[in-house]
Amino acid sequence: MVKRANLRLVSQWSQQIGVVAATVLCGVAFGSPAVLANPPVQTPLESRTSAQRGLQIDAKQAEEHYKLGVELQQQGQIPQAIAEYRQALQYNPQLAAAYVNLGAALANQGNIDAAIESYEEAIRIDPDMAEAHFNLGNALITQNQMADAIAQYREAIRLKPDYAKAHYNLGNALASEKQREEAMVSWQEAIKINPEFAEAHANLGLALYQSGQRQAAIASFITARDLFRVQGNTQQADRLDQVLQKLTTSRPAVG
């Protein structure tokens, strides 16, 4: 058992790194935000399928509106980006990437139900688009549908095994379901893919601490702190410094 002061501090750190990024709401950590998808090259088969449905496709116009939507979304001009994605989909209703990014933009506005519908439409068009499954998982987490979110993250990983963000968010979701050991495996996999994933190191450190592996936790926290510092996230680095100061200057209580 460790001193209560240490437990309180680590609990505070858990809450501090529970801040969400974009559409993700994870109880123990930063969540990786929605990702923007790239449009696939239009294929003759895709064109024929759409034409058979009586849809007018203009791939060039669709791509132009799609690219403008991406630019606007990256600049934070969400309503304008939404308008461009909708325009792109008028020219090509089979552009799954536009549905993915439209969903991300809608989620950014807090319209989670519409975002989920958009992601599901992207998956209907292209079941093998890992980004669609990842973003759908993010949206489901905000509605506390953890089991469904976990399934979507697993599917994203099946389609894209080196998807570090999906491994990371899967770990967050598993941790929120009290599946600590499985969460640790997911965070370790994220770190294996991307050794500079600071949030994954921080979450792993917290899980190690909660598992009684004090020295391993300290090592993970140090790595996370140093990465945050290098990456310019001084706020999180400073918070980890506070955690480390407590952990390294106090001794575990006996009993």
Automatic annotation (TrEMBL):
The record's section on Pfam families has: TPR_11, TPR_16, TPR_2
Q: Its pathway?
A: Protein modification; protein glycosylation
The ranges of the TPR repeats are 62-95, 96-129, 130-163, 164-197
Against InterPro entries, the record matches this protein to: Glycosyltr_41/O-GlcNAc_trsf, TPR-like_helical_dom_sf, TPR_2, TPR_rpt
Example GO molecular function: glycosyltransferase activity
Keywords from the UniProt entry: Glycosyltransferase, Repeat, TPR repeat, Transferase
Transmembrane helix as a keyword of this entry, yes or no, is no
Q: What is this protein called?
A: Uncharacterized protein
What organism is this sequence from? Desertifilum tharense IPPAS B-1220
